[in-house]
């Protein structure tokens, strides 16, 4: 099963969902159909409750998407490209291809999501009240009312002052504006996120021990917050350590390059064995980069089709690959990459491949940063 299903593009941003989003929709539908709606709007059939529950589950997923789209649209207007939006069981994430240049920009990017959720919540609640006055069935009215409450809750929860929540990013923007140091501001906001994460985890365990399954949900949310803020804090400290180091200083030359029109069979038998690398840059006949290709993707091609399948058919397209200019800050590139072994950033100058930077090199940088003086990494 694919981890992420792509739905297409909205406002130029690729939108997808992790399979766990389906779990969220089913949990919402089950909770509404079997418990919430029968109490709020009694007298309807089981089928009606389940229909309303499924629709509300889908609308919640849509609300999460609008929340993330708000972040993305504001970021795009500020000149920051957005790689993708991914929805999953506990919310969504917008992956920006860069950092805000000013605290004002950072503030509005962060605030746009909760403001959108608040607007959706108030709008849904207002519609519910108006429809109730016109004699619309109570099941529809209460479904809209519940949807409004959930969106307001989403807005309020996201405003908690700790990373990686939107409230933490607003706090970071405020501290950045006050101190002029975005990295120190991020570290301070990260501490708030750790406190929130541990509080939610503790509260969740207490609820679970008292017999409430809701506690497990809080534990899960708290764990995600702790994990995310730990990763962000590590990246921030790495950014401080890297300072003004450019990509040029850290990039390397690829040992092997794949040509876009080369058959897979020829590449795996004649070219790939020359190196111990597992992911390779791909270029066209003019030398312009077109993407990357990993051995594990090539291995999925059936042996009977490798002679007729080209690298172009299985490559990861350039639009999905981290790209940098040699003079870009290395810290900015690292923030857009995964430390996974098959992650490969292409360094491009004048439409030509001039170097690569591998995801596995990030771990090396983290270890080297540990040897820097403490004053440079706090």
From TrEMBL:
<feature type="domain" description="Peptidase M50">
    <location>
        <begin position="137"/>
        <end position="186"/>
    </location>
</feature>
<keyword id="KW-0677">Repeat</keyword>
<dbReference type="InterPro" id="IPR016483">
    <property type="entry name" value="UCP006404_Pept_M50_CBS"/>
</dbReference>
<dbReference type="GO" id="GO:0046872">
    <property type="term" value="F:metal ion binding"/>
</dbReference>
<feature type="transmembrane region" description="Helical">
    <location>
        <begin position="138"/>
        <end position="160"/>
    </location>
</feature>
<dbReference type="Pfam" id="PF02163">
    <property type="entry name" value="Peptidase_M50"/>
</dbReference>
<feature type="transmembrane region" description="Helical">
    <location>
        <begin position="47"/>
        <end position="66"/>
    </location>
</feature>
<dbReference type="GO" id="GO:0006508">
    <property type="term" value="P:proteolysis"/>
</dbReference>
<keyword id="KW-0129">CBS domain</keyword>
<keyword id="KW-0482">Metalloprotease</keyword>
<dbReference type="GO" id="GO:0005886">
    <property type="term" value="C:plasma membrane"/>
</dbReference>
<feature type="binding site">
    <location>
        <position position="71"/>
    </location>
    <ligand>
        <name>Zn(2+)</name>
    </ligand>
</feature>
<feature type="transmembrane region" description="Helical">
    <location>
        <begin position="208"/>
        <end position="231"/>
    </location>
</feature>
<dbReference type="InterPro" id="IPR008915">
    <property type="entry name" value="Peptidase_M50"/>
</dbReference>
<keyword id="KW-1003">Cell membrane</keyword>
<keyword id="KW-1133">Transmembrane helix</keyword>
<keyword id="KW-0645">Protease</keyword>
<dbReference type="GO" id="GO:0008237">
    <property type="term" value="F:metallopeptidase activity"/>
</dbReference>
<feature type="binding site">
    <location>
        <position position="67"/>
    </location>
    <ligand>
        <name>Zn(2+)</name>
    </ligand>
</feature>
<feature type="binding site">
    <location>
        <position position="166"/>
    </location>
    <ligand>
        <name>Zn(2+)</name>
    </ligand>
</feature>
<keyword id="KW-0378">Hydrolase</keyword>
<comment type="similarity">
    <text>Belongs to the peptidase M50B family.</text>
</comment>
<keyword id="KW-0862">Zinc</keyword>
<protein>
    <recommendedName>
        <fullName>Zinc metalloprotease</fullName>
    </recommendedName>
</protein>
<feature type="transmembrane region" description="Helical">
    <location>
        <begin position="108"/>
        <end position="131"/>
    </location>
</feature>
<feature type="domain" description="Peptidase M50">
    <location>
        <begin position="58"/>
        <end position="130"/>
    </location>
</feature>
<keyword id="KW-0472">Membrane</keyword>
<keyword id="KW-0812">Transmembrane</keyword>
<feature type="active site">
    <location>
        <position position="68"/>
    </location>
</feature>
<dbReference type="InterPro" id="IPR046342">
    <property type="entry name" value="CBS_dom_sf"/>
</dbReference>
<feature type="transmembrane region" description="Helical">
    <location>
        <begin position="21"/>
        <end position="41"/>
    </location>
</feature>
<keyword id="KW-0479">Metal-binding</keyword>
